[in-house]
From TrEMBL:
The chain crosses the membrane at residues 85-106, 127-144, 164-182, 194-216, 222-240, 275-301. It comes from the Bacteria. The keyword ATP-binding does not apply. This is Zn-dependent proteases. GO terms for molecular function: peptidase activity. Keywords: Hydrolase, Membrane, Protease, Transmembrane, Transmembrane helix. One of its GO terms (biological process) is proteolysis. The lineage of its organism: Bacteria, Bacillati, Bacillota, Bacilli, Lactobacillales.
Amino acid sequence: MVQTIEELHHIQYSIYGDKRWLYNVRNDRMIVSKQPLENYLGEINHSSNPLYDFYHSPYKRGTMTNFHILRIILDSSKIDFFHKIVLFLINRYSMITMLTLSILYLPRFAEYLQQSTEQFSLSQFSAGELIMIYLAVVGLVLPLHEYAHFSVYYKYFKPPKVTFGFSIRYFSMPVFFIKVPFYKLLSDKKKNELILAGIKCQVAIWFFLSVIHMIYPSHFVSGLLLVNLGLIVTNLLPFLKLDGYWYLSNLLKVDDYMTYFKNMFSKKAAPRIDILILGILNYILIALSIWGIACDIITFFI
């Protein structure tokens, strides 16, 4: 099991193999070095300290295609109880049970939709229902999805701080994020466990929504259940840096297949036809995503 040292001056520190990994919680910067850096963590405010710039450089709100709107830093101990609940929900036996029962309920759910096709069209939703579904997804489903990733991360690293917030990805996708900076230190098996945790959490949400729908088959619950199912399928896609993207990167034995794709053109990485095809497809989907939101904006103002 890999463990970070206790946080010092908002810097988390770990030794893995022959490398030192330092993560600055305040400005979201990570450095990796083969040189011992322990001795520099004390007098960090001296300008002669090699870590001075790493420590004092300002926080940047991501990139144009992944811009952080809001960021919050909390002591992990304040949410310790919640990660235990999430780990219980996404364990193998809970997942098998909830997934099986949810699938068994699908025919009844489909029958309900078929009987209320006209009522269930998007135009039949009131503005209040659409707002409530959107708020439930952005304020509950997506945060729980991301927190499931962090729960697995917390199980292996026990970080003193947790960083989370909201960002806009590719100018069109509202995304809740939780930082897992030492993710690369996990074994492939543990990486897959962390990657799939978010989708497993949404399977649990699918189960609970199915139970609610069985008791009270309302218009709102039906819409939320469908949106959640759509998000599960979407997150399985190996593009747009969704869960499927990272899972496929892990299967391809690379940290990030788009980084590898770019490095092939600068001759920093050996050519691979599989990553070349995936990289081109990923750029096409990014372009389509941006085009879609642009069309929506133009339509709204016309």
